[in-house]
Amino acid sequence: MLTDRFNRPHNYLRISLTDNCNFRCTYCMPDEKMQFKPAAHLMQQPEIDHIAGVFVQLGVNKIRFTGGEPLVRKDAANIILQTARYPVELTLTTNGTRVHEFIPVFKDAGIQSVNVSLDTLDPHKFTLITRRDEFDRVWQNIELLLHHGFKVKVNMVVMNGVNHHELPRFVALTQHLPLHIRFIEFMPFTGNQWQGNKVFTFAQMLETISEKFLFVPLNNHPSDTAKKFKVPNYEGTFAVISTITAPFCANCNRMRLTADGKMKNCLFSAGEADILGALRRGEDIVPIIEQCLWHKEAERGGQFMPHFETMNAQTMQNRSMIAIGG
Fold this sequence. Notes:
By secondary structure, the protein is an alpha/beta fold. Helices cover about 25% and strands about 20% of the residues.
């Protein structure tokens, strides 16, 4: 099992298939005309398979595909089915626009759970946030996933003054639908114009929801990123990913691989390890993986100030969210 210097075991790998996306969400992509990596600079299908196999040998038993939008990659189906050969829990995060094309692939790959990003239930606001008019398609595909028996987690990035007032509407969805809503505190990344006053905090979320609903906490696994809750007798649940105000780093078990083959030991790590470059040079990538993980900081990449309200996001060394992978 891969372990860092804080004795945290790591068994969960997130692999970005592409830095491209068919949305242009303002909090994720810094520029509408952003230039994406040339295909030759990205991990190719055999390289993804080889690297995933090495991580599995080192103890990884859960792999999540991310992007950009992973399903816009032309060989996404082949990569998913190929990776399904490994003894891992396989899942992915998507914006939902192409899910209808992949239902048979998901089933053949044994995928049971899919995360869908959806930041608003207002079609007009959806277009403003994503810069694309695709709300109906995304919602139809969420319903399609439920119809086919998939566990569906809906990821909502909560931004103060933008969509924070919609939390009760999202919770209301869980009354008759077995959805698992996950409210995510707005996080700083290169170019996303983050400011402390845009963060709608974990405490504020619970206070807002409690004005409309009575809810109870649920048990969480030690390595869970989300603090889970449920309105009694509702079919679904909701949760908060409180990266900014109540981090969960003490039991982190996650590693990330960017689409261009760089390993990040934390979402906020300043440094990266060039796994793909080493592989293409014929080097053993195991020591590089182990060394990268060993240098993982105790909390949030070692880059956060104690008080987020006064933090200057411009001083952080990182990529944009789309270039990291969700």
